Amino acid sequence: MKKQTYSLVLRQKREADNLVKHCKMCGKVTVFTDTTIRRHNANGKNIYQFAIYKCPKNHSWNNKLDIYKSFSEHVNPKTLIPTEFETITETEKITLHGIEEQQVIEFKVTVVDGSFRLDQALASHLHGLSRTEIAQKINNGSILLNNCLSKPSQKLYIHDIILIKVK
After folding, report:
1. Do 36 and 7 share a domain, yes or no?
2. What does the UniProt keyword field contain (predicted)?
3. CB environment 82-118: b (16+ within 10 A), e (fewer)
4. How far apart are CA 111 and CA 89, in angstroms?
5. Number of domains into which the chain is organized
6. What's the domain range around 35?
7. Which CATH number does the domain housing residue 162 bear?
8. Do 147 and 81 fall into the same domain?
């Protein structure tokens, strides 16, 4: 059985947006602008990601974006960044047509910037498969997440491994 391995980079597109909200420091309702700067805060086993917003008087407000799980065991840094794999970015797609049967496609998630569902991420990176077809393959076990059955709505995290069995 042959295996092709790719490194998957998942980034959400960021645009500076504005929110109208009460500024505690100014004492009035004002416009907060997204600085597109993100900060992380660790608390026990969770890592929180925040977006930093600023009002016109430069007061800041932090909007919680996501919660990640931290590592419970020591991880060798050399295993974190695969350099021998082809990296697939946001605009690239892999086609499954023409690939031999009994072959396995492996995606190693190396960067996750934002929140991504398994079925949506695969639909945006696989050519020729709809999201419904991908969800069916996840449900019947043709697509595994970390060598386990999962739901199509499962969130992806850094260091996840997605296996696609081509039949």
Report:
1. no
2. RNA-binding
3. eeebeebeeeeebeeeeeeeeeebbbbbbebbeebbb
4. 10
5. 2
6. 18-69
7. 3.10.290.10
8. yes
Same domain, 110 and 149: yes
Query: Is 138 in contact with 131 (CB distance < 8 Å)?
Result: no
Structure tokens belonging to residue 111: 């960067």
Claim to verify: residue 83 and residue 26 sit in the same structural domain: no
**Tokens for 47?**
């890592």
Phi-psi region at 45: left, alpha or beta (left = phi > 0; alpha = psi -120 to 50): alpha
pLDDT (tens place) for every residue of the chain, 167 residues total: 577 788 788 877 766 688 899 999 999 999 999 888 888 888 878 888 888 999 999 999 998 887 877 665 655 655 555 445 566 666 667 776 666 566 888 888 887 877 889 999 888 888 888 899 999 999 999 999 999 999 999 999 888 899 988 77
Q: Are residues 127 and 83 in the same domain?
A: yes
